[in-house]
């Protein structure tokens, strides 16, 4: 059985006064649930080091939202995977659609970043998903295949890689695909991952992301091959995040 992961992506939200939410989440991720389900919050890197310090006694894990593809060097403004690990971060989100759009990130760049993450012993959360236009022209599975093939390095394992399926049009919109469409997309990704990675592909976690809220999480997390969630807006408040976590 695949161990679920409930992950929060704070995006460009959160100053020091939001650390109380992280503290409340750290205190809320406890007991028998934490033995079965992983929990992760990815705040802005400015809060990374303090956030991990708040979680030393909690199973709540802390990650980052991007890293550079190079180990170090002349890359002003960028953050390396090693710097994230040095702050006790365990995960890094890569290739989020907002980075693909804002920073023109390509599948191959995302793949190189994942390799950098592996070298620093971070787990890469590789994001993929179709746009509204691609969905309307029935290209969803083609897009997912292209992004899986191009964004995931050959060295991916169930340990070092998590896939996050986030339809671009479902992000921040309050819209989600039908349960049937999510089931079809996740089954397709599972079969692609298994074809390429064998047993590791069977165990690799595939998260759903896009307008996951306390009110719809139980149904969404119950769909076959949905191994957890990547949550944006509803991960900013401990009460919402813990409510979603608790559907497991
Ligand atoms: P929302 O949950 O706000 O729709 O964001 C999803 C997302 O992009 C998480 O990475």
Quick gist of this model?
The protein is 41% helix and 15% strand. It contains 12 helices and 8 strands.
What can you see in these coordinates?
Helices cover 41% and strands 15% of the residues. With 248 residues, it is α/β, with parallel strands linked by helices. It has a single domain (5-245), classed as TIM Barrel. Strands 1-2-3-4-5-6-7-8 form an eight-stranded parallel beta barrel, surrounded by five helices. Strand 3, helix 4 (81-86) and strand 4 (91-94) form a beta-alpha-beta unit. Helix 1 packs parallel to helix 12 and helix 8 (140-151) runs parallel beside helix 9 (179-197). The longest helix is centred in the last third of the chain and has 19 residues, at 179-197. The radius of gyration is 17 Å and the shape is globular. 46% of the residues are buried. The mean pLDDT is 98. The protein binds 1,3-dihydroxyacetonephosphate. 1,3-dihydroxyacetonephosphate (13P) binds at residues 9, 96, 166, 171-172, 209-212, 230-234. 1,3-dihydroxyacetonephosphate binds next to strand 8.
């Amino acid at each position: 059985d695949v161990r679920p992961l409930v992950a929060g992506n704070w995006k460009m939200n959160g100053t020091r006064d939001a650390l109380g939410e992280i503290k409340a989440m750290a205190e809320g991720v406890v007991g028998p649930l934490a033995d079965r389900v992983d929990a992760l919050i990815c705040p802005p890197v400015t809060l990374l080091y303090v956030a991990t310090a708040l979680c030393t006694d909690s199973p709540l894990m802390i990650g980052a939202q991007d890293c550079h593809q190079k180990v170090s060097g002349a890359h002003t403004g960028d953050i390396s995977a090693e710097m994230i690990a040095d702050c006790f971060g365990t995960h890094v989100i890569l290739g989020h659609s907002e980075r693909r759009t804002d920073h023109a990130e390509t599948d191959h760049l995302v793949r190189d970043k994942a390799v950098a993450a592996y070298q620093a012993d971070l787990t890469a959360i590789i994001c993929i998903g179709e746009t509204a236009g691609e969905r309307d022209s029935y290209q969803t599975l083609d897009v997912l295949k292209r992004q899986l093939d191009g964004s995931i390095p050959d060295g991916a394992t169930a340990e070092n890689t998590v896939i996050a399926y986030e339809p671009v049009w479902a992000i921040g919109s309050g819209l989600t695909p039908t349960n049937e469409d999510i089931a079809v997309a996740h089954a397709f990704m599972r079969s692609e991952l298994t074809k390429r990675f064998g047993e590791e592909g069977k165990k690799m976690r595939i998260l759903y992301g896009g307008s996951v809220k306390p009110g719809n999480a139980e149904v969404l997390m119950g769909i076959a091959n949905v191994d957890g969630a990547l949550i944006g807006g509803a991960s900013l408040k401990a009460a919402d995040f813990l409510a979603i976590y608790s559907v497991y």
